[in-house]
Structures are given as structure tokens and as C-alpha cells.
Amino acid sequence: MDLPSIRSAYKRYALTYDAFFGPIFAGGRRMAVQLANTAANQRILEVGVGTGLSLPDYREDARVVGIDVSPDMLKIARERARGLSQVEALLEMDAEQLAFPDNSFDSVVAMYVASVVPHPERLLAEMQRVCIPGGDVLVINHFASNHPVVRRMERGLRPLSKILGFRTDMELDSLPRLPGLERIDVRNANLFGYWKLVHYRHDEELPDGPLTGEALAG
Ligand SMILES: C[S@@+](CC[C@H](N)C(=O)[O-])C[C@H]1O[C@@H](n2cnc3c(N)ncnc32)[C@H](O)[C@@H]1O
């Protein structure tokens, strides 16, 4: 996946996205928002906010910033956000190079985005960097199945990733174990546990500071 193919795939999806991907992903979105938005007046970043389907689920006293690389998806999110007091901003931005200072948000969420971005390890490092120490980082995504037949099908679909707009066979382990980012839970979300919610906590004390996307890229 690269940014031009992502933009082009989600330009195609934008108008029908809510009808297809609204209901099936709804349970996981609510679960992630509940874990991210646990207290009053939190500032929360949602990366790959898409058409903003999750925005009404945040508390009214939250300050939610959503970012996405697709202007077509963001356009719909902006319409949805009208009248939602919890939405602070919706910005066009690459999740792998966030334009926010370190420790800007109480929690950071990525829903159904990790298998779309070109470098999931950079996505996770950036989510950690902008999250305050002690804050929550949540990733919900489909990961490659353990069932041999389903797994073969997922592998078979890999060449279609650019057209589909996501990788069908992403391994959970392609989200790296980063220093200072503790994986505290992995739980099933949505139908049959086909999607999983991975809950990280950004440690209070970091040994050498968080890795950045650049550092990871070497
Ligand atoms: C499957 S959609 C998920 C949208 C939304 N999170 C939801 O729950 O429906 C994936 C979204 O990630 C966005 N995306 C992909 N790569 C991105 C990147 N590098 N930076 C920001 N957004 C990205 C896409 O444009 C798309 O809107």
C-alpha cells in the first residue's frame, strides 16, 4: 500500500462506506471509544478517522481530533461532525508523520487502519509519541486468521490489497513491541473475533524516549 493508492481506494469507497462498513464495524468502534474515553475533558486523537462514524460515540465533554489522508472520507466526516461539540478538529494528515508535539493526547485510537497504512510499525510509534505517559493507545483491526483454510484465502487475496484498500493477511506481530508501550490486553471485537482490539498503555517512565517513525525507518 502507498498513499496514492490509499487515497484512490477510499475515494471509491467514500460514498458507500457507511452503508457497507458502518454496521459490521460498529461494535468494535464503540468498544474502542469506551476504552479510550474514560474520563471527563479528555483530548483524544483518532487516526484514520474515515467518515467519522465513531465521532458521536465520544462523550460530549471530550475534545476529539480526527486525522485521515483521504480528503473524500474527511469531507463526509466534517458533515457528520456538524453540531457535535466533542469534535475539536478534522485534519488531512498522514498517520505515520503526525504533526503534533509529543504527549499531546490523553489517548490515541486507530480503528481498522493498521492494515491500510504502508508501515504499521511507524503508525504505532507515532501513536505512542503523541500519547501522554500513562495514556491509552488502542488499535482495532483484522489480523491474519489461525484457521489454515481462512489463512490461505487471506494470503491468496494479498495481490488485491491496492484495489481493496487494505491488506487481508496482516499478522498481529507486525505491530512491534515498542519500548515504553505495554500491550495490556488483546480481545475479540465484532463478529466471531475476526477483528481484535489491542490495548496498549504508554508507560509513565520511558528508558530512552519513544521511537519515532524516522528512527524505525533507520
Ligand atoms: C477502513 S477505513 C477506517 C475508517 C474508520 N476508522 C472507521 O472506523 O470506519 C481506513 C481509513 O484509514 C485512512 N488511512 C489510510 N492510511 C492512512 C494514513 N497513512 N494516514 C491517515 N489515514 C490513513 C483511510 O483513508 C481510511 O479513511
Please describe what this structure looks like.
This protein is α/β, with parallel strands linked by helices. It has a single domain, classed as 3-Layer(aba) Sandwich (Rossmann fold), CATH 3.40.50.150. It is 34% helix and 24% strand. It has six helices and seven strands. Strands 3-2-1-4-5-7-6 form a seven-stranded mixed sheet. β2, α2 and β3 form a beta-alpha-beta unit. α1 runs parallel beside α2. The C terminus is likely disordered. Bound molecules: S-adenosylmethionine (SAM). S-adenosylmethionine binds next to α1 and β2.
Outline of this structure?
With 218 residues, the protein is an alpha/beta fold. The protein has helices at 3-36, 71-81, 120-130, 148-156, 161-164, 213-217, and strands at residues 43-47, 63-68, 87-92, 105-111, 131-142, 181-189, 195-202.
Features:
7-stranded mixed β-sheet; Rossmann fold; single chain; binds S-adenosylmethionine; 218 residues; globular; alpha/beta
Q: Label the CATH architecture.
A: 3-Layer(aba) Sandwich
From the alpha-carbon coordinates, what is the Rg to the nearest angstrom? Answer: 16 Å
The CATH homologous superfamily corresponds to Vaccinia Virus protein VP39
Mean pLDDT: 89
Q: What would you call the quaternary organization?
A: single chain
Look at the structure and give the CATH class. Alpha Beta
Q: Strand content of the residues, in percent?
A: 15-25%
Question: How far is it from the N-terminal to the C-terminal residue, by CA?
Answer: 20 Å
SS content category: alpha/beta
Secondary-structure element pattern, one letter each: HEEHEEHEHHEEH
Major sheet description: 7 strands, mixed
The CATH topology is given as: Rossmann fold
Question: How much helical structure, as a percent, in the residues?
Answer: 25-40%
Small ligands present? S-adenosylmethionine
Shape: globular
User: What's the β-strand tally?
Assistant: 7
Order of adjacent strands in the largest pleated sheet: 3-2-1-4-5-7-6
Count of separate structural domains: 1
Please tally the helical runs, counting DSSP H or I stretches of 4 or more residues. Answer: 6
